[in-house]
## 1
Amino acid sequence: MTNIKDIAKHLGVSVSTVSRAINNHSDVSKETKRQVMEAIREFNYRPNAIAKGLIQKKTFTIGLLIPDISDPFFSALANAVEEMLFEYGYQVVYGNANRNPDKEKQFIANAISRQFDGLIITPDSLDPELIHLISELQMPVVFLRRRTPKELSIPFVDVDHYQAACTAVNYLIELGHKQIGFIGMPEKSFTGSERLRGFKDTMNKHRIVWGTDDIVVGGRTIEHGRDAMDKLHRRSPELTAIFAANDLLGIGALEWLAVNRISVPEEISIIGFDNLEYADLHWIQLTTMEQPRVEMGNRAARLLLDMINDKDNSKEFTAHNIEDSSVVPPSELIEARLIERKSCRPLG
């Protein structure tokens, strides 16, 4: 059976270097880490996790809290996190909250009792009780696709939802559209409110008149998109373009328009947000703002691994240590990218 000494001998490096590469220590070069990982796969080397954990006082387990595993956006995001952590010998324990605050709190409590090495979390709502529970954690934590509340000292990885919404609406305006409707997610969510704010601010910036009849919010699914498009068309039949705050809403709008024989983009243009795989299907071809899910998941995993390694080197991270911001790694804000397909066209 292959052991760590065999890997070191094969690469011509020390056992310590191989060990530090496996554990993603910052003093090992990316090239050396890559070579070690390739050798591990080639020799089918599997570290003894129990012995390793006892020596390093680690469980090599990461908790990943997501709001809804059935949402294709979050399932792809979770897969990216898991793939990256797997490369460094970590097991991921999922917490699918189904947008239930009680399940979120239970998962955080379990993370403490099970002694996870770290957490990557996407809470659906951050009430005072959950914030307090997170603040009691004595382990590295990263927020993913959520911003950190001011009470906590935790880095986040997210996209700039506001700026992406501005880009989407500007794109429609540049195509000549002025009568633009908005289909949005629940306003209580940060992402939903930011995308709505981007819509309103961009319309106001261009001095384009809009009213409450041009906005329908409150859902996330294809069904919500169908219902919202029906409401918008009855309220404002003169609309020539729609900005849907996620792709599922946009696809629902496309379906309603197809059933009612309103052609896209000839009669109305639609732009979404996320760039789900569905958006690129031949009969959908939805123009959208891309959230780079693989990049986001990879960055969150790498950020957490760096924090775990810093913790091993006696640099302590606690979620409530907001007085000493120097120990908190910087958050990462990623720019969304416009993906042009066939659901939008110039007006006239």
## 2
Amino acid sequence: MILTLLKREIRLINRKRSELLNPIVFFILVTVLFPFGVSPEPALLQQIAPGVIWVCALLSVLLSLDSLYRDDFDDGSLVQLLMAGVAPGLIVLAKSMCNWLFTAIPLIIVSPLIGIMLNLSDSAFWAMVVSLLLGTPSVCLIAAIGMSLTVGLRKGGILLALLVLPLYVPILIFGAMAVNAATMGQSYSGQLLFLAAILVFTVSMAPWAAGAALKISVSE
């Protein structure tokens, strides 16, 4: 069943390929603007680079969620899937996996170039990529809970941000700390283990919590 849902989501995403560019363009533009708004001083850019990259990545992933759920809700596809007996948790899991593959992975691929622009040290590149690989799936799953709660609302974008952004704080802290530790030549395995633990927890709990919220939103 999960493979069928994944194939369906991939087909839907292929129909609107232009929208896939929005998160990555947003990510690049915002990170490029930081040196102009703060300072082009290399030492300062190196200091703020981990936080800038992580915050922009979180917001970019959040930006891509609305279309994944809203279109299916508006055309009645979500209702049809639920009426057909498809588990809501599997729907959420499939959408979250596709969101990660088509949104987060391109951001992770581009992030080393952003790191070079922000004067991130060579030793921190690996920490940045690994921390993003561990942290962004949790970001997609947590955002899926918020989207499931607000999908039935006309203007749920602001409410979605208010719901999920506080939950991003631990991921942001440990992700940025891992890159900072690598920059200073320190061990960052502890931060990566925390990100891995958060990932295990969200994979175990978030799809089913989001699925329950989705069922309630669709039935109202």
## 3
Amino acid sequence: MEPIQRVPVIVQVEARIRELIESGQYLPGEKLPTEKELCQRLGVGRGTVREAFRLLQARGYVELRPGRGAFASEPAPVDEMGAIEWLVQNEQQLRDAIEIRRALEPMAARRMAERGDQASISALTELHKEFLIAVENDNVARIAELDERFHSAVVAGSGNRLLVSIIQQVNQEIKTFRSKTFRVPQNIRNAVHPHSSILRTIQSGDADGAEAAMRAHLDKVQEDLMDNIGSPERAC
């Protein structure tokens, strides 16, 4: 007998709104019910509906027009599997990769804080600025790219060539993960402050702080993964 899986509320709300579109009740270009109306129908908070709309927009089902609301659009055909479904199906591979990152990247952050030269720290600072701009623009592809470049820059800044080689291999394993995980709005939000903390501690040469900041960040990545897939571990 398979264990009962906890499905996050946002996923349930996203599915209900998607059904309205896929069933033909709302054709491309037609305005969807307002956040307030959906809150009343589904018995959830406005924040949950808003996050579901953003997830549907990332998947190509909804177009959000500032000041006007949400409109049905043609689902994007390029992604046959939704972000959450993909994360569920690849759970063990992702757990393995995060485990390696949690072991190695905090050490890299410590070493960069200790050894990083001004050029590498300046480059990391610019990457973070670009990351924040991509977040502001909801550019998921750019966010995923800059997340990889930011973490790779920290590893490179450690000065450990073997570590760089190992992380390059890990990055190849999780490239699709990055493109999927940032389709979930909460995962984007949960990366902004940690990146800022990592950068700040490296800039100040705080080795203990940099190591702790990176570890806390990757712990949150692990936690977000479990939240996204509704892991039975977290339901017990």
